[in-house]
Design goal:
The protein is mainly α. The chain has helices at 9-71, 74-85.
């Protein structure tokens, strides 16, 4: 009998082909699922970082809005002008206290 006519060899060859086809399908499926999954996880990490940055920027924006409100007040402007620039109101005099002279000068 020839190998093609052997009833036991034919099912074994068919099983080998089926196994190869199934293995190929499984490998292709894994590749098609793994690449988008990795990309998705990377994007989720990027989104989390962007959300954290957004939250920090919103907090900074809130602080700046409070500062803007304070600087809109004329009394606050006058206080800063006196403190930082030594400005005085009309009719007031400004005095500066100098440190004592060092011995030997």
């Amino acid at each position: 009998m020839s190998a093609a006519g052997d009833p036991h060899r034919r099912p074994m060859a068919l099983i080998g082909r089926r196994t190869a086809v199934v293995a190929t399908v499984v490998a292709v499926t894994l590749v098609l699922v793994a690449l988008p999954a990795r990309s998705y996880l990377s994007q989720q990490s990027d989104v989390a970082e962007a959300r954290a940055e957004l939250a920090e920027l919103e907090r900074a924006n809130d602080r700046l809005e409070v500062r803007q409100e304070r600087l809109s007040d004329p009394d606050e402007i006058a206080r800063i002008a006196r403190r930082d620039y030594g400005l005085v109101d009309v009719g007031q005099e400004s005095y500066s206290v100098l440190p004592t002279a060092a011995a030997g000068l």
